[in-house]
Amino acid sequence: MFSLHQWAFSVVVIVAEVAIAGSPAAGQNREFVRETAAYKTVGDLAIHADVYRPPGEQVVPVIVWIHGGALINGHREAVSGQIRHYAQSRGFALVSIDYRLAPETKLPAILDDIKDAFVWIRGRGARQFHLDPQRIVVTGGSAGGYLTLTTGYLVKPPPQALVAFWGYGDLIGPWFSSPSPHERHNRVKPSRDEAWQQVSGPPIADSRERKGDGALFYYYCRQTGLWPKNVSNWDPHTEPQKFFPFMPVKNVTANWPPTLMIHGTADTDVPYEQSVLMVREFQQHKARHRLISIKNGEHGLSGGDSGEIEAAYLEAGKFLDEFLLEPAGN
Fold this sequence. Notes:
By secondary structure, the chain is of the alpha/beta class. It has eleven helices and eight strands. The chain has helices at 2-20, 81-90, 107-122, 124-129, 143-154, 174-177, 192-197, 215-224, 227-232, 273-285, 306-324; strands spanning 33-42, 45-53, 60-66, 93-97, 131-141, 161-165, 259-264, 289-294. An eight-stranded mixed β-sheet has the order 1-2-4-3-5-6-7-8, sandwiched between helices. The chain starts with a helix and ends in a 6-residue tail after the last helix.
């Protein structure tokens, strides 16, 4: 399942690496180096961030990348190729963060990690890696898109802008809390024991540290509609209010940072309606936003028109430029 997610994201890299960094302002041959640091330790578990940036001590703007994987799988090295290419072409820093994964760690603590990552980026990380704490944008895909949206209200002060790729703002709707009818979630039928065996170890912040990759557990969650309960210990049918503090769709305000969303209309993993719901909230609160819809796009935009996808990433690049580039004359 998750290898399919990653494959779907890589499909657009071929088109979008050129598109997102293709404006005349983009430098094409900048050096980019990576360093790894622990931004937080919980017990014996160190939680890491990878910092990609041009060499030297110049203070640079920051793009924070949050990986996907249904909060169950993934790791910081699964960085969007097009976002990395964009950051490198502009001479920006790219910070890709790990966070503790479910179900070994439950939802509130996962969001604590996201908030703590930004405290580190703006403090110790900024000093160590010469990052500009005043120019930070956040982006991610799928569950990373969800976590990107949570930074709009959980991170204080909020980032300058957000870009959510096929993300979601609701955690308890039928799409997650009822058995999925989609073929992508029903290719294999793990038993409960087989599923839980993959995730029965100690807390982790990198799914490669498990004996299993967590895919069977995700299939099980989607086939049973138990994803919300298994990542939180709360029942979405009888305790929905417990999820509300962690749902972007319930927490939009007029002070929300400018947000761009990109989503395929035929997505069978994260329904397109999830971005539509966010649009309704943004409209109600008069928050700046834009949704770019890719007709017939599946999860990761596969199946969408390549020209539309390329245009979407061009718009994403322009949007990021607005918040990260120095104004002309400065």
